[in-house]
Amino acid sequence: MNNIKACIFDLDGVIVDTAVYHYKAWRRLANTMGFDFTEQQNEQLKGVSRVRSLQLILGWGGVTKTEAEQEQLATQKNIWYTEMINQMTPAEILPGAREFVESCRQAGLKTALGSASKNSMTILDKLDITHLFDAIIDGNKVSKAKPDPEVFLKGAQELGIEPQYCVVFEDAIAGVEAAKAGGMKAVGIGDPELLHEANLVVSGLNKVTVEQLEMLP
Ligand code: BG6
Ligand code: MG
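Above: inputs. Below: predicted complex with 6-O-phosphono-beta-D-glucopyranose.
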């Protein structure tokens, strides 16, 4: 491999489907305030930080809260969310994800995690895949949310690889934008129409090979 030296993976929606747990916890919170929101609206929360997600949800419910109240609400949501992710097992890794990360490593590529989630370490631990990443950049290590490229640039830096030799794997539009803004290639996981800025879009890590990475447009 010459053009590609590192792979940087988003976590939620790429390696594991935590969106269902985020949705359950946010919905429970919205319900306590007397409103609900749809699965379609939940799509807009993918890749979005915890604080920003809460602001969007409050907007949907037409509810105004002080900053202190918002902090309390976000904390409550995270308590419910962590109760669920603490029950996760390696069986919940998305099809082919573990195998793909392993084959990258076998091919001599560096691997990093680049996630907005402050719960990344817990999730990786529950899935028993922490050791598969040479660098882990999570929501605790960044100050700017995707589509800002900070999370991926920090990952590349920690790996010691120039951005142009990195491929990012992302399910969120903001994540693909972040990768491109950082001068990296992007493989979108999901809908090709939504993720049209990516160099390649596949339905999951079971649908891409390490050999394909060298041929990305
Ligand atoms: C992203 C998810 O990976 O992490 C978002 O796609 C989530 O839905 C964000 O809001 C922050 O996660 P956490 O675990 O720090 O609340
Ligand atoms: Mg994601």
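The CA atoms of residues 114 and 162 lie 15 Å apart.
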